């Protein structure tokens, strides 16, 4: 096998045509579409020939047999790199990949603008009580506009849970409105957080001090269920909660209880435990909830950007470490396996 045949497989469709366009600029890449309209054994056989797997990021969209699990990895002896379609990698078992010597890459930062704009839009609409006003107009129950009096974002305190790519862009947008921006991010020190436009605080302070709490952290063992009844109980009465991060970070039942009891002013939800949520989901029926089906990062610009980034990551993996490596501890094993499989010098 020569370095001019780094085969990358994707299932059914790429994130965006930009993936194919950008990949075509790298002679070393051999991109293969693997249709889902064939037996599982045939799909597995096609993937087994690949050094790279371009994997869907949404757990409810990717069929379970093709989630990157120990069972799938055992069927893919040539696999060197798994690249997620987006910033998230819920469909990829990172620890299993590390054990197998497979590098995991995401496209963090590629959709930061789209997600941050979406979160900001949710904040503005919630403060102006647009979901409630629209429901009242449709029901024909609007009698007094003052009953729908909203609030302005300018000068409010906003707490950001996570200050990575999206959180940093969020802080920049909020600073334009003159907001006081607080942030919780255990990976960053106070000076770094200040340079990104926020003030570092601990979670209890953020919850108690913020008019709006916005989630921008990854789903990990530490963040799963982090915003539950206890955390919500620490929030300011009448505060708003916005999440464009990942489902399961927020306890949906606890949020619903807080909204029904009037302890929170409203919520903007783009991510869910089940995606898309069923039409009967009680949060969808609540007048103070603004909902979207995990579309914050689904913009033409974001999709083209993250698709191009994925192609570039696969190309880099032919002779170097791929960028945005989720499991850097795999480095030595990855390099050794790449030498063996591609006969490429380190």
Automatic annotation (TrEMBL):
Domain of life: Bacteria
InterPro entries from the UniProt entry: D-2-hydroxyacid_DH, D-isomer_2_OHA_DH_cat_dom, D-isomer_DH_CS, D-isomer_DH_NAD-bd, NAD(P)-bd_dom_sf
Organism: Roseomonas populi
Keywords: NAD, Oxidoreductase
PANTHER family in the record: D-ISOMER SPECIFIC 2-HYDROXYACID DEHYDROGENASE FAMILY PROTEIN (AFU_ORTHOLOGUE AFUA_6G10090)
Residue span, D-isomer specific 2-hydroxyacid dehydrogenase catalytic domain: 29-324
D-isomer specific 2-hydroxyacid dehydrogenase NAD-binding domain boundaries: 120-296
Lineage: Bacteria, Pseudomonadati, Pseudomonadota, Alphaproteobacteria, Acetobacterales
Signal sequence extent: none
Similarity comment: family membership: Belongs to the D-isomer specific 2-hydroxyacid dehydrogenase family.
Protein name, as recorded: 3-phosphoglycerate dehydrogenase
């Amino acid at each position: 096998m020569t370095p001019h045949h780094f085969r990358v497989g994707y299932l059914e469709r790429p994130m965006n045509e930009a993936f194919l366009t950008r990949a075509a600029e790298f002679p070393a890449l051999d991109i293969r579409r693997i249709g889902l309209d064939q037996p599982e054994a045939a799909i597995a056989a096609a993937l087994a020939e690949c050094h790279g797997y371009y994997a869907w990021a949404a757990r409810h969209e990717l069929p379970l047999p093709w989630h990157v699990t120990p069972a799938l990895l055992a069927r893919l002896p040539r696999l060197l790199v798994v690249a997620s379609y987006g910033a998230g990698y819920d469909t990829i078992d990172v620890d299993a990949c590390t054990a197998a010597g497979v590098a995991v890459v995401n496209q963090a930062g590629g959709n930061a603008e789209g997600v941050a704009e979406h979160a900001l839009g949710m904040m503005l609409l919630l403060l102006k009580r647009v979901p409630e006003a629209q429901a009242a107009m449709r029901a024909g129950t609007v009698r007094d506009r003052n009953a729908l009096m909203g609030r302005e974002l300018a000068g409010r305190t906003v707490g950001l849970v996570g200050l990575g790519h999206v959180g940093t862009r969020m802080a920049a947008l909020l600073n334009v409105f003159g907001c006081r921006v607080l942030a919780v991010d255990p990976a960053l020190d106070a000076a770094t957080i200040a340079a990104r436009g926020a003030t570092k605080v601990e979670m209890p302070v953020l919850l108690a001090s913020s008019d709006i709490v916005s989630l921008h952290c990854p789903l990990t063992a530490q963040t799963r269920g982090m915003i539950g009844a206890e955390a919500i109980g620490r929030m300011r009465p009448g505060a708003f909660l916005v999440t464009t991060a990942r489902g399961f970070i927020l306890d949906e039942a606890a949020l619903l209880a807080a909204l029904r009891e009037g302890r929170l002013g409203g919520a903007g939800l783009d991510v869910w435990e089940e995606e898309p949520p069923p039409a009967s989901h009680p949060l969808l029926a609540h007048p103070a909830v603004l909902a979207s089906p995990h579309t914050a990062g689904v913009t033409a610009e974001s999709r083209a950007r993250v698709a191009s980034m994925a192609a570039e990551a696969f190309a880099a993996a032919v002779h170097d470490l791929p960028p945005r490596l989720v499991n850097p501890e795999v480095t030595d094993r990855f390099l050794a396996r790449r030498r063996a499989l591609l006969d490429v010098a380190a």
